[in-house]
């Protein structure tokens, strides 16, 4: 058996996981990386920008975070590459104060984001754009990760924020607050069919010098995504261990079914040309002043391609 390899991974999600970044947690907890002969150690950081910067600074070998920061850094000439996707969209709801009951009322509203350029900001900009609301008419406030954004919503000092679906369910079931879901998962999917999501990224130099470790990383991610897609019990096991928000069992199953039916799990590592052509087109529509790069500039799909050759149809349950 080949020797085990070690890899240091920065987690832009911080110390907690939500449904749309659960595949990384699953790869560890369900033994997918261990099965591939890889020992992954985590460093929690604040957001995808910090995760990508940690890679560039040599503090970690690879990062998990939103695709937006990687595209921005690469457009600015920084040598980052995406090696595998760990989702195909976001499991989020737009939660607002009760007085906002029509999307048109978001004009002039304060909107909490993790940080400027972060995944929460990227998706929020796409939502606002789809609603034909100029970005200048939104009071963007960089508040921090979901717990901080929820605290501001509950305190009534922020009007709106995208938060994880399980967090929205918990808030909706609590009669003690004045919040509600203005736009749910399905409505956001209709508004923004091609949604930003999490990716694992590294530097060109590391990809060149550590191909075997990255092949194992990609293989473990794909296995984890397939297990989450195929098996509710596996999903529930990881959810119960890593997701800190408690919601009734029927809602957990509903969240899983929603993710599964919408194709939210990156069961093949999602580096397809069509998907990324759409992602990059939307990104540059939002950021027209950035120098443009090509898919080949930012995607190294060799590791996913090799992993998919090993994951024969009989290796996991049929999807």
Topology at a glance:
Elements: E1 5-11, H1 22-29, H2 32-35, E2 38-44, H3 47-56, E3 62-66, H4 67-75, E4 80-85, E5 92-97, E6 110-113, H5 119-130, E7 139-142, H6 146-155, E8 160-164, H7 165-172, E9 179-183, H8 185-191, E10 198-203, H9 204-209, H10 211-230, H11 232-242, H12 249-261, H13 273-286, H14 295-298, H15 302-310
Parallel strand pairs: 1-2, 1-3, 6-7, 6-8
Antiparallel strand pairs: 3-10, 4-10, 5-8, 5-9
Helix pairs in contact: 1-10, 1-11, 10-11, 10-15, 11-12
Summarize, please.
It is built from 15 helices and ten strands.
Contiguous runs where pLDDT drops below 50 for at least 5 residues:
314-319
Strand order, sheet with most strands: 2-1-3-10-4
Oligomer: single chain
Count of separate DSSP helical elements: 15
Return the string of H and E elements.
EHHEHEHEEEHEHEHEHEHHHHHHH
What would you note in describing this structure?
By secondary structure, the chain is an alpha/beta fold. Helix content is 45%, strand content 17%. It has helices at 22-29, 32-35, 47-56, 67-75, 119-130, 146-155, 165-172, 185-191, 204-209, 211-230, 232-242, 249-261, 273-286, 295-298, 302-310, and strands spanning 5-11, 38-44, 62-66, 80-85, 92-97, 110-113, 139-142, 160-164, 179-183, 198-203. Strand 6 (110-113), helix 5 and strand 7 (139-142) form a beta-alpha-beta unit. Helix 1 (22-29) packs across helix 10 (211-230), helix 10 (211-230) packs across helix 11 (232-242) and helix 10 packs across helix 15 (302-310). It is globular and about 60 Å long. It starts with a strand and ends in a 9-residue tail after the last helix. The model is unreliable at 314-319 (pLDDT under 50).
């Amino acid at each position: 058996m080949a020797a085990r390899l070690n890899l240091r991974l920065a987690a832009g999600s911080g110390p907690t996981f939500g449904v749309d970044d659960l595949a990384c947690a699953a790869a560890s907890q369900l033994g997918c990386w261990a099965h591939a002969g890889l020992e992954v150690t985590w460093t929690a950081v604040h957001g995808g920008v910090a995760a990508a910067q940690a890679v560039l600074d040599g503090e970690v070998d690879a990062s998990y975070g939103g695709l937006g920061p990687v595209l921005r850094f690469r457009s600015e000439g920084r040598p980052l590459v995406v090696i595998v996707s760990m989702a195909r969209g976001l499991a989020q709801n737009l939660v607002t104060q009760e007085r906002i009951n029509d999307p048109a009322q978001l004009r002039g509203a304060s909107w909490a984001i993790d940080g400027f350029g972060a995944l929460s900001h990227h998706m929020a900009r796409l939502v606002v754009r789809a609603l034909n609301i100029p970005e200048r008419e939104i009071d963007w406030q960089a508040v921090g990760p979901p717990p901080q954004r929820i605290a501001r919503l509950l305190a009534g000092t922020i009007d709106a924020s995208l938060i994880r679906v399980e967090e929205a369910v918990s808030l909706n079931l609590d009669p003690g607050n004045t919040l509600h879901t203005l736009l749910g998962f399905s409505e956001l999917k209709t508004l923004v069919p091609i949604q930003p999501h999490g990716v694992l990224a590294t530097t060109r130099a590391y990809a060149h010098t550590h191909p075997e470790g990255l092949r194992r990383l990609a293989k473990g991610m794909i296995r984890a995504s397939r297990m989450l897609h195929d098996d509710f019990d596996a999903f529930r096991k990881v959810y119960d261990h890593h997701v800190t928000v408690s919601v009734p069992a029927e809602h957990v199953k509903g969240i899983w079914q929603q993710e599964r039916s919408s194709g939210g799990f990156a069961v093949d590592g999602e580096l397809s040309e069509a998907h990324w052509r759409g992602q990059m087109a939307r990104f540059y529509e939002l950021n027209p002043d950035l120098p443009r790069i090509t898919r080949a500039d930012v995607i190294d799909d060799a590791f996913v391609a090799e992993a998919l050759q090993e994951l024969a149809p009989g290796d996991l349950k049929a999807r």
